Amino acid sequence: MKDKEKNNIYFWQESIWAQLTGAWEQQRMPHGLLLAGPAGLGKPRFARELAGFVMCREPSPAQQRCGQCKGCTLMAAGSHPDFRWESVPEDRKTIGIGQAREIVAWMHLTSYLGGYKVVVIDDADLMTREAANSLLKTLEEPAGASLLMLISKRPHGLLATIRSRCQLLRFTRPGHEAALQWLGTQDSSADWPRLLFLANGAPLRALTMYRDGFADTDRQFSADLAGIIDGSTDPVAASAAWAKQPPVVWLEWLQTVVLGLIRARAAGVAKSKECEPVHLIQGAVNINLGRLYHYLDDLVAARQRSERGVLRADLMTAAMLIPWACGLNYRSIYQED
Ligand SMILES: [Zn+2]
Questions:
Q1: Measuring CA to CA, which of 88, 97, 184, 235 is 20 to 30 A from 220?
Q2: Rounded to the nearest whole angstrom, what is the distance from the C-alpha of residue 59 to the centroid of ligand 1?
Q3: CATH classification (class only), 2-170
Q4: Å from CA of 70 to ligand 1 middle
């Protein structure tokens, strides 16, 4: 246990960690790694930990960084000259060619400390095609002792040629019970089954939701939706309140709930533990499966539109809440164009 704490690896990452540190010891560390998987599984922290391990001048045989050498000290201070962390700049939506060229040029510089050069690119699927192409050469002909780590929630958004030149590390959600147990050690008062359901099984996402007070938002959404279904809440009034939240918050919430309802129906109601929290929305469990799928398509379309900023927020919330007043028996506003 102590070793794991020192490396700061989450328990669901242990096998990937062992695989890579094992490869390191046998001097078979790949030049390119693709850390793929949904949000909320701690991929960025894993990348940082692995970089720290690679930068250690005297790692122990137990797959530990020493914590004291120059490499470790510089990494801990966030000032290691052979390490770079790249992400989409705040004022932009993509990683462009300029940024990629800078990374490539930097990787070809001689290492300051004589060891590895390590670059992490977060949200690597947001690289433009030109940026990805310029990075490709570095993956094909690596510059000396270097490691490029790409982090991606949507690896299919990466160029296939980039994907094929990286070793794929698939981060998966831990088992339901194990995740609940771990979350329980973080805080004993939270409704973890509910939050873990809303976080699609990703423990860190559940933890962030809890810390951000999302339980209150969830309660409001659930009460409103139940009220709309049984006719006690006016969907237009509710949609005005919902529109105060960023669209992604309530769109994701609705999507998770609808997927939960679909799963619950498919598995037979109350059969699946993971689906249980969805039954908090009274009246929704009896809605026809075909209508749920139809509505789910609309949610996806609404989300795409909201990302493009096409619709006014309050109109969009109304369009997505009113259908619940008639058991999702409605004509789509999105699927005709
Ligand atoms: Zn060290």
A1: 184
A2: 6
A3: alpha beta
A4: 7
